[in-house]
Specification:
The protein is α+β, with helices and mostly antiparallel strands and 356 residues long. The chain has 2 domains: 3-170 and 279-353, Aminopeptidase, CATH 3.40.630.10; 172-272, Alpha-Beta Plaits, CATH 3.30.70.360. The chain has helices at 3-18, 28-39, 100-117, 143-150, 195-208, 255-265, 287-294, 335-353, and strands at residues 45-48, 51-55, 65-71, 90-91, 94-96, 126-132, 155-158, 166-170, 172-181, 185-186, 222-230, 236-237, 240-249, 269-272, 280-281, 299-302, 315-317, 332-334. The strands form 5 sheets. It has a 6-stranded mixed β-sheet, sandwiched between helices. The model has no long low-confidence stretch (mean pLDDT 96).
């Protein structure tokens, strides 16, 4: 397909996607549209629940495979909207609509990039395109569900709005529930064992501890106590004190390593809700990163989580749009950003996957 046609069709696809409600777990109609769009252009698609994926025409099992991934679910429109979230109206240089910026522009730009490379037979890499669900709720039935079906993957580009700059690392997330155990007693007498007092040294440890390894991109792991609960009435010494800790894990550690270090230093009971939202990174010297730098893009570390957290391969977060517009009322994408996204991805991949 001609590049100009790809840009136009990518924009048209984005407007069609915006017009379809696709809250997390309710993405069946946008999955239908994406599959239909690809199949009308001769691409065989695969599907599991609301996840759709495809491979380049000349797939070669002997070659490594790169993943192009973004999501087609959205959050629900917030109460500040002043326009129809599903209108997909273009006014001036802006395309308005729920999911336009996060992450519709990225998704259609990656689809356009995939179609550009789809018929080429001399690529160094196979290309797997995956349009996945449930990213906005970190759900189990999105990218994580289909990773085993995609085959062995070498590296990934995850489409999220970064103004096409290069997020070469992303913090992981741990939510830790802690319980300090004491013994109930009457507050007027010298009896019982106050669980609040037992929790205080551990809470202070979370406030002050510095992990030895420091990320070049993010600095230190950050831990914040965010919720505390204890006691039932004023005259009873509390038997239990529970508190919750938000932990933002850098690429210097795995989530499992951080949990073990915490357990070694505190006396309370420690239960992570999940370790699946992992920190992720890609070496700054990786060819895809160097290609982006050569195009004038800057590298940085992203404090927010995305589907990168579910990947065990090097991954780069990059895409058209601006993160600050995500989830805002009257969300929009500049019309030019779709074309810039398609061209940006294509040009970034050229020196990496072209066989010539």
């Amino acid at each position: 397909m001609l590049l100009e046609n790809i840009k136009k069709e990518s924009l048209d696809l984005l407007r069609a996607l915006i017009r379809i409600q696709s809250f997390s777990k309710e993405e069946d109609r946008t999955a239908n549209l994406i599959a239909q769009f690809l199949e009308e252009r001769g691409v065989k698609t695969y599907r599991k629940l609301n996840n759709v994926w495809a491979y380049n025409q000349h797939f070669d099992p002997a070659k490594p495979t790169l993943l192009l991934n973004s999501h087609h679910d959205t959050v629900k429109p917030n109460s500040g909207y002043t326009r129809d979230p599903y209108d997909a109206a273009i006014e001036g240089d802006k395309l308005f609509g729920l999911g336009s910026n996060d992450a519709g522009g990225c998704l259609v730009s990656l689809i356009g990039t995939f179609l550009y490379y789809y018929p080429q037979s001399d690529l160094k890499y196979n290309i797997c395109l995956a349009a996945t669900a449930e990213e906005e709720i970190s759900g189990n039935d999105g990218l994580e569900l289909v990773i085993p079906d995609l085959g062995e993957l070498e590296f990934a580009i995850v489409g999220e709005p970064t103004e096409m700059h290069l997020a070469i690392a992303e913090k992981g997330l741990l939510v830790i529930d802690c319980t300090a155990h004491g013994k109930a007693g009457h507050a007027a007498r010298e009896e019982g064992e106050n669980a609040i007092y037992k929790a205080l040294p551990d809470i202070e440890w979370f406030r002050t501890y510095q992990f030895p390894k420091v990320s070049e991109v993010f600095g230190h792991v950050k831990m914040t106590v965010t919720i505390i609960n204890a006691g039932s009435q004023h005259n009873v010494v509390p038997a239990n004190c529970t508190f919750t800790v938000d932990v933002r894990v850098t690429d210097a550690y795995t989530n499992e390593e951080v949990v073990e270090i915490i357990k070694q230093h505190v006396s309370c009971e420690v239960k992570p809700r999940s370790v699946r939202l992992k920190p992720s990174s890609i070496d700054k010297n990786h060819p895809i990163v160097q290609s982006g730098i050569a195009l004038g893009k800057t590298t940085y570390g992203s404090p927010t989580t995305s589907d990168q957290a579910l990947l065990d391969i090097p991954s780069l977060k990059c895409g058209p749009g601006f993160s600050g517009r995500s989830h805002m009322a009257d969300e929009f994408l500049y019309v030019r950003e779709v074309a810039e996204g398609v061209e940006g991805y294509i040009n970034m991949l050229k020196p990496v996957i072209n066989g010539k």
